[in-house]
Structures are given as C-alpha cells and as structure tokens.
Amino acid sequence: MNIFHITKLAQDYASTAITKGDKVIDATAGNGADTVFLAEKVGQTGQVYAFDIQEDAIKNTKAKVLEKAYESRVQLIQDSHANIDQYVQGPISCVMFNLGYLPKGDPAIITKGASSIKALKKSLELLKVNGIITICVYTSHEGGVEEASIVEAYLKVLDKYRYKVLKYSCLNDQTSPYIVLIARMK
Ligand code: SAM
After folding, report:
1. Which domain of life is it from (predicted)?
2. Which of 5, 51, 67, 98 is the most buried (most CB within 10 A)?
C-alpha cells in the first residue's frame, strides 16, 4: 500500500465494500481511472454509474471502458452528480468522489461545495449498510479550500450511530490532498 497516493488508497478502501454483482457510483469520472477500477471490482454482473459534467471527461472515460471491453457494466452519464437519484436506484455498495478539476483539462471547471453536498446527501440515501463512500479532497487550487470546508462542515454533523466519517490527512503538510471515508453502520 502506498500511503501517499491518495487515489490508490481510496481504491483500496473502496475494495473492502464491493463484491461482484454490486451497483456502485463514480461521482466524478474525469479520465476514467476510478470507473475502470470499479468496473473490474463489480464484474460482469455488476453496474457502474459514472457521472461527469464535461464532455471531454465522458469521452476519455468511454475510451478507457471500451479498451477493457467493460461497456456492458458501465453507464456513462453526462450530468451533475447532484442528480444521481434521477439515474440510480439503491442499494449501492460504494460511491467514489475525486473532487477538483479534470487532470489536463480546464482548471476553471471544478467540483463545488453546494453540488458536492447534494450528491453526498443522495449518495448516503442510496448507500447500503456496510457500504463506503470515498472522497479525495484537494485544497491547492482556487475554490478548493472553500469546497473542503463546506463538505467537512456537512459531514461533521452526520448521525454518528448511522455513519462513521474518517479523515486521513497529512499532519505536517496542510496543502496535501487527503481522503475522507464514510462508512454506513446501520
Ligand atoms: N476520478 C477521475 C479520474 O480517475 O481521472 C478524476 C476526477 S477530476 C479530479 C474531477 C472531475 O469532476 C472533473 O472531470 C470534473 O469535470 C468533474 N465534475 C465537476 N463538477 C461535477 C459535478 N457537479 N458532477 C459530476 N462531475 C463533476
């Protein structure tokens, strides 16, 4: 396990909640790394719902999905993750968020606190018991600190008997990206 590579760490945590045949969500498809990872994990009988607002992200993710011949297990949805409930019915075993902007894309198009919270709220409703939500959080781009504080403020007050919310961050470097994990207990 590489403890500094947060996207890989998020995948390692996500793995613990996923079994073949599950329905899962990639809330920020981007260039498709998490979508392909999730497709691998759910297998032929599972389903991945991958959201992104950008056409380029959907195109890049589609290319990766086709390369692996995973098209029957992945639905690509060009819409905001705030509308997850219009496309997905529960129960869902895992939702992955990778906040910020599309790597090698337009750095002005970023995830935002208000829509991230809507998506998180809906994801929590769809999540099954023992399901996991992973969130990779970045604060070094413009708007990143604001989004992080909005998301954290929302998660801090979740019912502690129903959900456990963990933060994995670098104590001696506040600018480092970090992970937030949400596990549904009951
Ligand atoms: N997980 C991706 C990967 O493996 O390449 C990287 C995701 S990237 C850091 C963040 C993505 O979130 C961008 O592609 C951006 O277009 C997308 N995004 C921004 N706002 C969004 C929204 N409201 N709903 C869904 N996706 C959004």
Report:
1. Bacteria
2. 51
Task: Output the CA torsion sign for 161, 16, 174, 57.
Answer: negative
Relative to the CA of 80, which ligand 1 atom is closest? 24
How high is the pLDDT of residue 168? 95
> For ligand 1, atom 5, which residue shows the shortest CA distance?
31
Q: Which CATH class is domain 6-184?
A: alpha beta
* CB 169 near ligand 1, within 6 Å: no
- Our mutation pick for probing the ligand 1 site, out of 24, 52, 179, counting the most ligand atoms within 8 A of Cβ, is 52
Cβ–ligand 1 distance for 93 under 6 Å, the answer no
What are the boundaries of each domain within the chain?
A: 6-184
* Cα gap 13→95, rounded to integer Å: 11
Q: Which residues of the chain have pLDDT under 70?
A: 1-3
pLDDT of residue 141: 92
Burial of 105-119, coded b for 16+ CB within 10 Å and e otherwise, reads eeeeebbebeebbbb
Nearest residue to 98 via CA among 176, 175, 182, 30: 30
Quote the pLDDT of residue 2: 61
Q: How far, in Å, is the centroid of ligand 1 from the Cα of 31?
A: 8
Q: How far is the CA of 163 from the centre of ligand 1 (A)?
A: 25
User: DSSP per residue over 147-158, as a string?
Assistant: HHHHHHHHHHTS
Task: Say what the pLDDT of residue 29 is.
Answer: 98
